[in-house]
């Protein structure tokens, strides 16, 4: 049997013009909405470790993150805000936290001490998006960060009646308070 070429490759006719055209390729960079506002309450993992002292009385507090909740004197404050309008961005955040502890002091004239450590920061930035896409963004920004550290130390008499006259003769008050704080601003630039 001899078959000719048209018979071997015979089949139904195929018309490529009846096929649906492929969808146009999607652009990789789609411009996001004109205005975007985000507000958040970030979580912070903090601890206190080191040496702290006033007028020769030095202590070494070591409060890890898992212990910090028992030493908080109030609910810590934390907030972040991010606003973008077209390619311009404005963002900032802040934190304030205060921890405290009490201790018994060895000695007769002062028997108790309270310490409160305060820390805070606030930062704000202005940025410009060089790449402004839904799936990718690159911003250049500049701003400042304000940091605050403070501490209060109170050393006081617990009211032992045996030492009232001795304290009066030595001119020692029933309570000594020391307090100090510092704050500074750092410039910040980045991408």
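Sequence proposed for the structure above (191 residues):
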């Amino acid at each position: 049997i001899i078959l000719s070429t048209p018979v071997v490759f015979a089949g139904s006719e195929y018309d490529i013009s009846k096929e649906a055209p492929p969808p146009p390729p999607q652009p990789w960079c789609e411009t996001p909405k004109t205005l975007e506002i985000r507000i958040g309450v970030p979580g912070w993992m903090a601890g206190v470790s080191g040496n702290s002292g006033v007028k020769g009385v030095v202590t070494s507090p070591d409060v890890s993150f898992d212990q910090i909740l028992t030493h908080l004197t109030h609910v810590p404050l934390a907030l972040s805000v991010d606003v973008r309008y077209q390619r311009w961005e404005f963002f900032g955040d802040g934190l304030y936290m205060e921890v405290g502890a009490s201790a018994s002091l060895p000695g007769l004239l002062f028997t108790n001490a309270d310490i409160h450590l305060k820390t805070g920061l606030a930062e704000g930035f202005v940025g410009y998006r060089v790449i402004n896409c839904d799936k990718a963004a690159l911003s250049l920004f500049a701003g400042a960060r304000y940091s605050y550290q403070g501490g209060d130390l109170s050393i006081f008499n617990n009211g032992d009646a045996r030492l009232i006259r001795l304290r009066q003769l030595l001119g020692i008050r029933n309570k000594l308070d020391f307090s100090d704080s510092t704050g500074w601003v750092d410039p910040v630039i980045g991408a």
